Amino acid sequence: MKTSKRRFLKSILAVSVLAVTGLYSNVTYAKDADTIKLGFLVKQPEEPWFQTEWRFADKAAQDLGGVEIIKIAVPDGEKTLNAIDNLAANGAKGFVICTPDPKLGPAIMAKARSYGLKVVTVDDQFLNAAGEPMTNVPLIMMAATEIGERQGQELYKEMQKRNWDVKDTAVLAITADELDTARRRTEGSIDALIKSGFPVEKIYKSPTKSNDIPGALDAANSMLVQHPEVKNWLIVGMNDNTVLGGVRATEGQGFKAENVIGIGINGTDAVNELSKPNPTGFVGSLLPSPDVHGYRSTEMLYKWVKEGIEPPKFTPVGDPVLLNRENFRAELDKKGL
Ligand code: GLA
C-alpha cells in the first residue's frame, strides 16, 4: 500500500516535469512564425495511456512538419478553461482534448469559439446542458461497448479455464456511471458475462468515487466485506487502474492470485503489473490504440486548421489486443509503444 502510494506520487511528479518541459520547449520554438501551434489537453496525465497519446501527437507533428504540440494537463474545469486562454494567448489554432468532465463540453466550446479555436475530442465525449452527447464535435474514441463486451468474454473464458464453480464465484463490477465511456464499457462487460451464462444475481456493482487506483480500491473493499461467502472473484472495471484497484483490494483481504481474475482496458497502464515476477489476479489487459488516438486526432486537427478539411464527427478505433504476461512486450513492440 505504501509503495503503491509512493509510486503513484512519483508518477505524478514525473508527469508534472513532463508537462513543464513540454510547455517550456514550446516557448523555445515559438520564434518560427510559420509553425502551426496545436494544443493537446488531457485529464489524467499520470496515466501512461495519456502519455502515449501525447507521444504520438508529437510523432504526428514531426511527420507533418511545421507543427508544434502544446501539451497541457487539465485535471479540472478551471485548469481546462485557463489552458484554453493560454493556448489562445500563445497563438494556437486549435486543440485536441480529453476533458476531465464531459459536462464541461458547452463551456469549452464557448471559450474555444470565442478565440476561433478548432476542437477535436478524444476518448470521452462532451455532453450538452441536457446531458446528451454533443455529436457535432469531432470525436475519436475506442468502441466502448465492444471493448467492454470483450472484457466480459475474456473473464468468462479464464474462469472456465480455471474450472471454477460458478456457485463459489461472483463478479465485482467497479462502476463510474457518470462517465459515459466508463458506463458503456462496464455495461458491455456485464452483458457479455450474462450472455455467456453468468448468473445476474451474483454480479455486484460498486461505484468508485475517483477514476484511479485508490478510488477503485475503496469501492472494491466495501463490496468485498459484504460478501465473505464468495471464494472466487471476477473483476470488471472501465480501465486498467480500476481493475488494479479491485485486485489490490482482494489481496488486502487475503485472496490468493488463483482466486481472482481481473482483465483491464488500456494495456499501457498494465505494464508494471504484468512485469511482476509472480502472477497476480490481474491476468491481462485489452490494448486498444492510444498511438492511433494521439496520432490521428492531431493529424485531423492539423488538416482542419491548415487545409480546411473538417474531420468526421465520429472515428471509432477498434480491434483491441489481449495482453498477458507472456505476450505483452511483443505486442507493445509491434505497435511501437
Ligand atoms: C477514458 C479513460 C482512460 C482511457 C480512455 C481511452 O478516458 O479514463 O483511462 O481508457 O478512456 O479511450
Descriptive account of the structure:
The chain has 337 residues and is of the alpha/beta class. It has two domains: 36-137 and 290-319, Rossmann fold, CATH 3.40.50.2300; 144-287, Response regulator (Rossmann fold). The protein is 47% helix and 19% strand. The protein is built from eleven helices and twelve strands. The strands form two sheets. It has a six-stranded parallel sheet, sandwiched between helices. A six-stranded mixed sheet has the order 7-6-8-9-10-12, sandwiched between helices. Strand 9 (260-265), helix 9 and strand 10 (282-287) form a beta-alpha-beta unit. Helix 7 crosses helix 8. The radius of gyration is 20 Å and the shape is elongated. It starts with a helix and ends with a helix. Residues 1-31 have low confidence and may be disordered. Alpha-D-galactopyranose (GLA) binds at residues 47, 49, 98, 123-124, 141-142, 181, 211, 239, 265-266.
Characteristics:
337 residues, alpha/beta, Rossmann fold, 2 domains, six-stranded parallel beta sheet, six-stranded mixed beta sheet, 11 helices, elongated, disordered N terminus, binds alpha-D-galactopyranose, signal, sugar transport, transport, periplasm, L-arabinose-binding periplasmic protein
Which molecules are bound in this entry? alpha-D-galactopyranose
Q: Helical amount among residues, as a percent range?
A: 40-55%
Q: Provide the β-strand percentage band.
A: 15-25%
Strand order in the largest sheet = 2-1-3-4-5-11
CATH topology category name of the largest domain = Rossmann fold
* N- to C-terminal distance: 28 Å
Q: What would the average pLDDT be, to the nearest integer?
A: 92
The total strand number stands at 12
The CATH class of the largest domain: Alpha Beta
The largest β sheet comes out as:
6 strands, parallel
State the order of secondary-structure elements, H for helix, E for strand. Answer: HEHEHEHEEHEHEHEHEHEHEEH
GO cellular component, one term: outer membrane-bounded periplasmic space
Family: Belongs to the bacterial solute-binding protein 2 family.
Subcellular location: Periplasm
GO molecular function: carbohydrate binding
